[in-house]
Amino acid sequence: MDMREATGRAAQPEKTIVVSGIPDGLVQDDVMTDILMIHFQKTKNRGGDVQDVVYPTTVKGVAYITFEDKEVTTNVLQKDEHRLEDKRLGSCYPLKVSLVSEHVFTCVSSVLNLSIFGDKYVLEDLVQELQKNIPTLSFSPLQSNGKISVQGSFSAIKSLKDNLLLKANFLSGKDKRGDRKPDQSPKKRIQKCEFFVEPSNNFVHNVNREKQAVVLDTDIYHYMKHFFYKENLAKYDVVSHEVTDGEITTIYLGNSRTGFDAKELERAKEGIENLSAKLQCRLRKERFSFKSSARTERQKYKQACESIKSRFPRVLVIPYDTHIDVIGSSSETYEFTQEVNRIVKSHFQKRFKR
Question: What is the tally of structural domains in the chain?
Answer without folding.
Answer: 3
